[in-house]
Structures are given as C-alpha cells and as structure tokens.
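Thread: Modeling a multi-component assembly for a lab meeting

Hi all, long-time lurker, first post. My supervisor asked me to bring a structural picture of a complex we are working on to next week's group meeting, and I have zero experience with this. I have the sequence lines for every component (780 residues in total). Could someone generate the structure of the whole assembly? Inputs are pasted exactly as I received them:
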Amino acid sequence: MNANVTPFACGDAVCAQNRIETFIRSTVFDRPTLVLDRDMVAQQYRALKAGLGRADIHYAVKANPARDVLEVLVSEGSHFDAASRGEIALCLSLGAHPDCISFGNTVKRASDIAFAHQAGITLFAVDAEEELEKIAEHATGAQVYIRLLVGATGADWPLSRKFGCTPEMAEGLMARALELGLTPVGLSFHVGSQTRQAEMWRDTLDQVAAVWTQARAKGYPLSLINIGGGFPAFYGEAIEPATIYAARVMEMVEARFDGAERVMAEPGRGMVAEAGMIAAEVMLVSKKSEDDLHRWVYLDIGKFSGLAETMDEAIRYQFATERDHEDHGPCILAGPSCDSADVLYENRPVMLPVGLRAGDKVIIRSCGAYTSSYSSVGFNGFPPLDVVVI
Amino acid sequence: MNANVTPFACGDAVCAQNRIETFIRSTVFDRPTLVLDRDMVAQQYRALKAGLGRADIHYAVKANPARDVLEVLVSEGSHFDAASRGEIALCLSLGAHPDCISFGNTVKRASDIAFAHQAGITLFAVDAEEELEKIAEHATGAQVYIRLLVGATGADWPLSRKFGCTPEMAEGLMARALELGLTPVGLSFHVGSQTRQAEMWRDTLDQVAAVWTQARAKGYPLSLINIGGGFPAFYGEAIEPATIYAARVMEMVEARFDGAERVMAEPGRGMVAEAGMIAAEVMLVSKKSEDDLHRWVYLDIGKFSGLAETMDEAIRYQFATERDHEDHGPCILAGPSCDSADVLYENRPVMLPVGLRAGDKVIIRSCGAYTSSYSSVGFNGFPPLDVVVI
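Re: Modeling a multi-component assembly
Sure thing. I ran the full set together rather than chain by chain. Output:
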C-alpha cells in the first residue's frame, strides 16, 4: 500500500476505506469494477440513525440497488424509498415489509400504483392533481404526502424545478386529496443532493414549516414530515460527521414541525457513497499538441459507464494511484468511449502524477452511490460497470 | 392513423416512416420501446452508397449495435467502424470479414488491440505516441491512420477536443509510426455529428487537405483518407437528401486528396437514426403553480433510459401523439426518474397538444441512433429501453 495516499478525513471511516483500497490494489480486474463494503453500509446506517433518532430512515434505493446493500439495510431495520415498481419488487423480494416502503417518485405509471397498492404499500408522494387522481383510482384510500418545491440551497448537486409544487398549490392538493378519498398525511421536500453542512438546511426548513403550520391551522391533520435526502458524502471537501450532521438537522426539524408524529429521512448518497470505490485503469495519456499545458488522461470508465455525476463537473471524485509519491500536474480526464461528450473534468483539471501511463490502476473513491445503476447497457460495446461486494 | 400528423419531409422516407408509426399506433407497449425498420436501414445504406461512390462505408457500430441492423448491413456489403473489442466481436459473429473492420477508437485497451490483431484486423486509428507504442507492441506491422483535431464547424452536436492531434503533431506521429514498424497509411477527422449541409464540410476538408499535401510532399506515402461521420438525420430542420449530400461531400474530397487510393466514410446517425422511432407514454401532466406559463409533461423515457442526446438540449426530437389535431401549447418535457437532471427540454420548451394526459401514447421520431445503447442498466429500477425490429 502506498504510504503517500491521503487517508480519508472522515474519522472512523479511514480503516474501512483502506480495506477497499487494499482489496483493489491486490486484485487484478479485467474491466472497471465497483467494490462495495457491506460493513461500511451497516456502520453508516447506524451513524445516521444515531443522529436521526426517532426519524425513520427510508433508504433511497436508486442510489445503489445492489442486493447486498439492501440486505444489509433490511437486517439493520431500515425502511425504503422506492422510485419505481422495479425497486418495490426488489425490496419486497429481499424481505422488506410493505409498511416500510414508500413510493416516493411523484411521477408514477398507473399500473405501478396498482401494483404497489396490491403489494400492501400505503404511502405515496404527490405534487400534482393528475397524480392524485391516478392514486385515488388505483390505490383507494392511500396516504399521500405533498412534495413542495423549495428555493435553491447551497447543495453541490442542486435540484431543478422538476419535482414539487409551490407552497400556494399545496393546500389545494390537500383539499383535492380529501375529495378523492385519500389521506393527506404530510409534506416532503428535498434540500438538494450533497448538502455539505447541516446549517444549509435552515432556510428550507423555515419555508416548509410555514406551509406546515398554515395547513394545520386550517384543519388539515398533517402528522408526517418527510425531510428527504441531501445527506453528504466525502468527496474531498470537509463535511460534518454523519451522526452530528443528522442530529443537527433533526434538532432544527423538531423545533419547527409541531404535531409531526412521524419523521422520515431518505439518505441515499449519504448512506452508501463512501462504502464503494471503483477500480479503473488508464487507457492512454496524450497531449494534443507539443505545447499543450495539460495532458489528456483517458480512463476505462466514463460518463456512460458509471460516472454520470461528472455531468457539468458537479461531483468531483478523488483519485489514488500507485504513483502518488511522484510530482503531480494538471490533467483533463476523459472516458473511453468514442463520444466527444464523454469528458469528465476539463474546466477544472485534475492533478495526477506526471508519470501516469497506460495500464496504471486508478482508484476512484466515494463511488458507492449513483454509479453502477447509471451505467449504460453497452454503449460503444463496453460492458456495464461490474460490482464486487466484500 | 391521425391525418394531422406532419409527414416526414425527406421524400422517399415518408412511406417507410409511416410503416413504423402505423405499427406503434396499433401496438400496446408495456414499457418504452424502440421500433426499428430493417428495410429503412438497407434503403439508407443504398442512398448513401449511391452518393459516396468509390468510398467504403464503415458503419459506426456505436450508433446502433442491434443485431438486425448489423445483419442488414453485412448483407448490403457495408464495412464497419468498431469502438471496442465488444463491437469487433459482434461484427465478426455476424459475418463481417476482418478486412472490413477498422478499430476506430483512438483510446484502446492493450489487450483489445491484441485481440483485434489476432482476429485479423489490420487498420487502427491513432492520435498519440503512447497509442502507437501499444499498437506496435500488440499488433505488429499494423496500418494506422492519424486522427486530426480540426476547428469547430456548424454541427448540431459539435465535437470537443477529446479526439485527434493538432496538424503540427501529425507528421511526428507518422515518423514515430515508421520507427515502430507500423505503416502510417492516412488521415482521419470528424466534422461533427449532425452536420446538416454538405457545404459545412468545406473548411474542414481544406484544413485536412493541407496536412495531407504537406505530408505527402515530405515523402509519407499516404493513400487513405477517412472522412469520418457527420452525415445528418432529419430532426425537423431541413437536410439535403442522403445521396445528394454524400455526392457533394465526395466531390469536395476528390478535389482535394491527391493520391487517395482509398476513401472511408463512417456514417452512424446518418445511417440509422430515421430507421427507428420510440413508443413512449405520458406519465403525468402538471403545473408547478396556478399561474405557471408552461405545463410539465413527464414521459416514461428520459435522459437515463435512452434520450441521452437531449443533454444540453442538443438533439431536438420530434413528437407525434393522437391529439395532434388539438391546439398546442408550450411544455417542459422531463423523464420518469427521480433524478432532477432528467429534464429533456426546458430552455426551449416543446409544443404539445393542450389535452395531453397520463396514459397517452407519444411517438418520438428519428430515434434509431444513440438511444438503446445509451440506456442505463436500470437506473431508478426502470428496465433498459426495449427494442423491436419490424
């Protein structure tokens, strides 16, 4: 193991991270492979739960639907947030109880709502009248929570306007839900993925609490607040330890949501990102011209084979190599496909060892979330990202 | 069939396009499905070949690696441009001769070069010294063509700086190839995907011809010019008919590349895009607030399930519905996943019927290229894009 590799800054995780790195360094891979550590998933569940206290953790399955990850979380007592019929079926097949699964996508196929209802799922997300009508028809009497569209926060992967309705519309949807025989039990929102500091939640919580308080004052019997995801992973910039972060968020929640008998949280990235690293390989190092300031480094993994979150250079992964003791220089990093859009970092180049060459192994850290499931089925004839669990 | 659906503007293709539309309108799909027409692939091959004349067409397999597409092209006599070992193996398994396959990715794994060499492939793309060294080691005596980095053109999907070396470096690579026992046979370049008018090739051809002429004057025995792809498909903006477009490009090529015994062209999009349409479905229509100017329309297919080329709204697909006789209004179009980046068109909204609602079928035209192979393995629990061939 290379002594110059910077250990992870997040305390308890250092030893476990090194377990994955040690495995990758001592193993030969014939294609890009995500290595996941089951123990780290369990540890992170416990760390988040310790801070979230009475809140139910509904793991966002979309972050990493690997069977091993879900099995660990079922055994830890986690609940689940499912985005589709496929995810619901997967959770049920691994022993999750239907009472512990929420159908959290606000955009659902009618037949999938019916499937969920028949499977015993009773809690659905909604942000539009047409969705309420579909739920009323296919999941009679279900509980719904209204997803709110909240103002921008400081998240590294801020959310678009895609999900949620404005606070002004929320009460109208509650009234319509009642007319349709549904039970509007609460509100949900999302602060934005990778919200690095708990303090960044404050403004959003204030906005949501105002809607909550007003709706309850008007007689809507809200009892559930779903605080969504946003729990961060370590990508090189300091984050608060998971338990402290979660506890601070919960403290702000408890101070604002009177009558919230039930609190839900939906960590995805914050649960599994640090539990995985990708074993990759350098395919080529080149310069475009003799006087080029930057080298181009091409890896065997790119935007279409697992690293989709490099879109707009939003998520900046960390890299380790066997040459980390050498001098470093700026590189433009690209994937292996013939697609010109398959460039990972160009606006902000990455510092990599000057001696890097084709065939060198590269470890990409904190890759446990939003990688394997984003991988394309076979773009350019490359197989999907492989997954190994240790 | 709805009489108000605008027929395709590209002449002969209208009837065949209608064959796919008719099939989609009369079929029930339980998930998003790409419907491909074998006959249209054959027709387009013949149309391009009629214009390209003596040039060898190396179909860019990455555009659509469906077995049916490759089988049709093998039987038509097409050659193939492969991006990976996987694509080479696929072409060989369907009867393509190794002499007709070029390994066109400038970024190749060493073991894949060895595989190609053993399979009898003799022609490789290169744009860097380290790549030449890999080829010399694993494919002794191979022919190589040097990919040039050319200036920006007017393409709808312009290429980044990812591929190619500057003209100044090209001769150095030819000299290095000779030192390594390789044969530098020619040059390649790419005008940019979806270059709508043949005339847009002129400047690029001038740039490349200058390198060609100078290298030959210095004694490099160049005999192959690979003009790459860029051949357009119809996405709503006028394009020249394929034969006329190809003939105009070839005319410009013939006027510039003295001694080019061999000309290669690599259409991908231009070969298969119009031969496929996607059958999709509306999942939800909503407004974010009472006074929202735009409706949000959510489809069952998005950026991560086949429509990756909507990235930055670059490729603008055309849509047909059963309500095309109704008034239309602006919509923001989004995919079904819980990913906030899964929005297809927002900056330039799409005009869709005002009565559109959940459950309505939507036909997305010219989807035969760069869709199915981009689809994720199962992001959010949604299965990959299905493919049906008629």
